[in-house]
């Protein structure tokens, strides 16, 4: 299924190759990004993420410890959910899979928090954290790709299978010490709306689900990703930010649609990051 997904997207992208031949740097928020590692070896129904397979993963830490997940999208910016951000001092840990191995060398202080102006009850549940100092990219720390190419603003609708990551509750009902990952299948918004009748599900959201697999408490803010072959290179793109789901961590999860919030992301990063 995953190979079929990449093949279908490669065909879609190839169809527009005559227009995509411009500078790759203009099509990404940060470059290089989204490198696919060559490895051989309660997100509910998930398993441990091998080391360095998610170098963009960020732990958002508050005064009492771990709060949410996040994703590194630029040298000074981490993308997370708006409901993860409050009037508290925050720190971010990068390059760490095991919560107990986080240390000062992996820690970045947050000197700016930017919440979407229309965030409210599951709507526009997205925020940016500005790091006090730029990140030095390395094998275990590098950004995920945010695709800016307007030709593919609806690319999320063509994804068959996503992958999501987090340190949230597992089957044991305890927060996971190790970063977990799992695959979820794209769910039509019309079907998602039936599952969440009291919430408005629209273009600003992406829904995904899989039997016996889901996000759970603590996974908020983490990225919804997919591998896309772009300019002949398999690349990891971020399509969503974990927002909400069922209290018992079953069925579908609703994610904030990154592609639908590109203007806000880009404008905030460029305005507040002095790029």
From TrEMBL:
PROSITE patterns reported for this sequence: TRYPSIN_DOM, TRYPSIN_HIS, TRYPSIN_SER
Keyword terms of this UniProt record: Disulfide bond, Hydrolase, Protease, Secreted, Serine protease, Signal, Zymogen
Gene Ontology molecular-function annotations: serine-type endopeptidase activity
Subcellular location field: Secreted
Gene Ontology cellular-component annotations: extracellular region
Segment forming the signal sequence: 1-18
A GO biological process held by the record: proteolysis
InterPro entries cross-referenced by the UniProt entry: Peptidase_S1_PA (IPR009003), Peptidase_S1_PA_chymotrypsin (IPR043504), Peptidase_S1A (IPR001314), Ser/Thr_Proteases_Immune/Dev (IPR051487), Trypsin_dom (IPR001254), TRYPSIN_HIS (IPR018114), TRYPSIN_SER (IPR033116)
SMART domains: Tryp_SPc (SM00020)
Domain Peptidase S1 positions: 43-270
Family according to the record: Belongs to the peptidase S1 family. CLIP subfamily.
Name by which UniProt lists this protein: Peptidase S1 domain-containing protein
Species whose genome carries this gene: Drosophila yakuba (Fruit fly)
């Amino acid at each position: 299924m995953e190979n079929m997904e990449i093949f279908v997207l490669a065909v879609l992208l190839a169809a527009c190759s005559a227009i995509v031949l411009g500078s790759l740097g203009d099509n990404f928020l940060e470059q290089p990004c989204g490198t696919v590692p060559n490895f051989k070896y309660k997100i509910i129904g998930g398993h441990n993420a091998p080391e360095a397979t998610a170098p963009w993963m960020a732990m958002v830490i508050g005064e009492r410890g771990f709060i949410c997940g996040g994703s590194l999208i630029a040298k000074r910016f981490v993308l997370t959910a708006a409901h993860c951000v409050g009037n508290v001092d925050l720190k971010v840990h990068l390059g760490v899979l095991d919560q107990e191995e986080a240390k000062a060398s992996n820690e970045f202080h947050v000197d700016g928090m930017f919440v979407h102006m229309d965030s409210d009850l599951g709507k526009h549940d997205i925020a940016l954290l500005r790091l006090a100092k730029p990140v030095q990219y390395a094998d275990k720390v590098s950004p995920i790709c945010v695709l800016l190419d307007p030709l593919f603003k609806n690319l999320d609708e063509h994804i068959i299978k996503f992958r999501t990551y987090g340190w949230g509750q597992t089957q044991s009902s305890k927060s996971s010490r190790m970063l977990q990952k799992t695959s979820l299948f794209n769910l039509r918004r019309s079907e998602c709306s039936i599952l969440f009748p009291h919430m408005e599900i629209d273009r600003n959201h992406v829904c995904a689900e899989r039997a016996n697999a889901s996000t759970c408490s603590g996974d908020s803010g983490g990225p919804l990703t997919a591998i896309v072959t772009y300019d002949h290179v398999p690349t990891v793109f971020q399509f969503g930010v974990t927002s909400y789901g069922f209290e018992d961590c079953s069925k579908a999860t609703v994610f904030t649609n990154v592609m639908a919030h590109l203007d806000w992301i880009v404008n905030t990063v460029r305005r507040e990051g002095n790029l």
